[in-house]
Amino acid sequence: MVQYLIYMVILMAIPMWAQSRVRRNYAKYSEVPNSTGLSGAQVARKILDDNGLYDVTIEEVSGTLTDHYDPSRKVVRLSSGIYHGDSIAGTAVAAHEVGHAIQDATNYSPLRIRHALVPLANLGSSLSYILIFAGFLLQIFNLALIGVIFFAFAVLFQLVTLPVEFNASSRARDQIVSLGIVKREEERQAGKVLNAAALTYVAAALVAFMELLRFILILFANRDNN
């Protein structure tokens, strides 16, 4: 029981730590203006146009850190603070989302794989726990096994997300430097924002993998006991 509690504390602490780093770096560099005075929307538009992505539009969305790229509509959506602001943090986040648009335009294979995994990942997220616990409760090995397989698809999605996000950040840094959007010191600051954001995906993948391993161990331990 004590070991399980320790495990659950670790499981919760990992993503909380990663999120705290993101928010701390975002808050810090949201107060630091970039030297060009460009807003996040202008940064995104400049990078998109430089890469010939004139058909990709930019929209403002509500919330904080709700920024994302929608491949189905070819839209980069930026939260209000980033859309209008001219901070280093806003520059980094806007460039990162455009990085996904560039991946989409160049048929970056991990992005395509992630898109293909979305239905299976959604199914795994919604059904896996139900099937696993029902299988354990009713002592039906195959039912629990199906649940674990569904959960594995969700974990695979998290793992494939890692190269997608790291590559988007790498593209973002290359673009903001090559286009002269940031200077040398600003590049380091933007990098801190991007690195902190990447940690959240690493944390999510690590937690998901730990849970998958735990379910597998419990599943086969129960089978051996029966």
* Lateral strand order in the biggest sheet: 1-3-2
On the 0 to 100 scale, the average pLDDT is 92
The low-pLDDT segments are none
Q: Radius of gyration from the CA trace?
A: 20 Å
Shape category: elongated
Strands, count? 3
The secondary-structure element order is: HHEEEHHHHH
Number of domains: 1
Q: How large a portion of the residues is in β-strands, by DSSP E? A: 5-15%
Structural class: mainly alpha
User: How many helices?
Assistant: 7
Helix content: over 70%
For the biggest sheet, the summary is:
3 strands, mixed
* Distance, first to last CA: 22 Å
Q: What this model shows, in words?
A:
The protein has one domain. Helices cover 77% and strands 6% of the residues. The protein has helices at residues 2-30, 40-50, 80-84, 88-105, 109-138, 141-178, 184-225, and strands at 57-61, 68-70, 75-79. Strands 1-3-2 form a 3-stranded mixed β-sheet. A hairpin with a 4-residue loop joins strand 2 (68-70) and strand 3. Helix 1 packs antiparallel against helix 7 (184-225) and helix 6 runs antiparallel to helix 7. It is elongated and about 65 Å long.
